[in-house]
Amino acid sequence: MPGSGFNPYPNGTEKIFGSWDEYHVIAGSNVSGFGSGASLVMKRGYRFDVPTGGANLNDSRNNLTVASRGRTGYSGVPGLPSSLLARLKARYRDNIEKISRLKITTHDTGLQNAYIKGDVNLSQISLPDYNPNAASTLGVMKNSLYKTLSADDSKNNTLVLYVDGTLNIDQNICYATSGYYCEGTSSTIQNNYADIATNSITKLPQILIFAKQINVSDQVTRIDAWLILDEDNAPNNLNTCSTYAEPSALVCSKTLVFNGPVFAKSLTLRRTGGANHGGGIATRDNAGSRELGTSFRHLPGDTYYFTANDGSVAPGEIFNLRSDALLLGHGTGSAFRYCRSCLPA
Q1: Which one of 106, 161, 245, 284 is separated from 32 by 20 to 30 angstroms, measured CA to CA?
Q2: Contact 237, 266 (CB under 8 A)
């Protein structure tokens, strides 16, 4: 939005920025304050004080919203995820033995799962014991839980966590060959989402988490998992920064990337993204040369120095429906094209 100490836009043009989807939006009700077709995107090639992109005040921001009422921006498609959720719960959640334990089990089929009754931190859940019939593909390194490729394409490479309570995600969750690729590289750079490659879909890792509530700690920056919050008599809420009561430019400011589907009744999006631009070289660095994301050090004297290949215009949260989730969901070898702000022809 204009003002608030920013330098003026060219010719005093007012622009609107906010949350947006790269392609189309399908919703069970009206879409408000959210752009489809990348209508609110910030484009590359600008400095922090002279951004371009965004939407004009009178622009339609919902041209790629699926509409069933003959009006752009009014979706009203009921019951969208209900059948899919029923299948997911029947196949993965309901088959878990309801004996609460803070340890993952590796079954002979390769499937790994755990049921926890009550509230729990992800870091409290122990890795599985050795199973000679199915090698575990899980590991913990630094502040990350990672799952890598299976060596046997006849084995199931899925981890299912069923938390009958609140799960506090206090570790990164990623698909990689080591925890280094969960924290040592920016999770928002496309070629660093994962360092694994295979010619077999069945070897790909997959993590599904069922819970009544999911809270994410402020130090977490990457979650490669299906988050499914669809329990009876539960808030079914996802809070992206539960560490602090009030987010600010100093806390909850790291971009959080979700690489997988999210099912929830409500989202509490508390990340502040690139709000901590402050002083130092952060404001002099050309944002056009940086990728999405943000990582700044707060030094004495209220000076901020950027410490990663990131931009201060970064979003608070990024939700990616990655192609590996689609491949496993459909069991096909289709190819998918990715771009940052392109639209279908």
Answers
A1: 245
A2: yes
Distance CA 97, CA 118 (A): 15
**pLDDT tens digits, residue range 154-207?**
899 999 999 999 999 999 999 888 777 776 554 444 444 456 777 777 788 999
Q: Strands 317-320, 120-121: parallel, antiparallel or unpaired by DSSP?
A: unpaired
Phi, psi of 126 (to 5 degrees): -80, 155
- In three-state form (DSSP H/G/I as H, E/B as E, the rest C), the secondary structure along 180-221 is HHHHCCCCCCHHHCCCCCCCCHHHCCEEEEEEEEEEECCCCC
The mean-pLDDT minimum among 19-23, 104-108, 242-246, 313-317 falls in: 313-317
Q: Which residues contact 196 (CB under 8 A, 6 or more apart)?
A: 148, 149, 175, 176, 177, 204, 205
Distance CA(178)–CA(147), nearest Å, equals 8
